[in-house]
């Protein structure tokens, strides 16, 4: 636990690793989710903050050839940003929109498809 803001009925407790608490400040996009349905019985609500863009950024940086193309080709970078934008699609539509993106000429060209196979697989698995 990082912080306990009192012992009242409106108590707020903050959990997370110290290093993970810095991630959202480095993210251009925060995804938040408040839920009552799956919170442990000890809590009324669980509210999560996720730095989606930092996870994608890290994956991008783990693939030097993809990072080089991303850094040097504005059209390539724009297409990668379209994948980032999946975070703003309603959850029930994400797979459909992802499939539409993957069918665009940019993503099916042999050289690009081969270059991006690990990156796009990452999106499919997360």
UniProtKB/TrEMBL annotation:
Domain of life (superkingdom): Eukaryota
Record-given protein name: Uncharacterized protein
């Amino acid at each position: 636990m990082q912080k306990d803001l009192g012992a009242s009925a409106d108590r707020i407790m903050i959990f997370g690793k110290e290093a993970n608490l810095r991630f959202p400040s480095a993210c251009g996009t925060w995804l938040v989710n408040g839920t009552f349905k799956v919170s442990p019985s000890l809590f009324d609500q669980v509210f999560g903050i996720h730095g989606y863009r930092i996870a994608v950024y890290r994956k991008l940086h783990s693939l030097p050839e993809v990072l080089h193309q991303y850094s040097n080709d504005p059209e390539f970078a724009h297409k990668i940003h379209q994948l980032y934008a999946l975070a703003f699609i309603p959850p029930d539509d994400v797979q459909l929109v992802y499939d539409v993106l993957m069918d665009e000429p940019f993503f099916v060209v042999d050289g690009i498809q081969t270059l991006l196979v690990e990156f796009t697989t990452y999106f499919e698995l997360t």
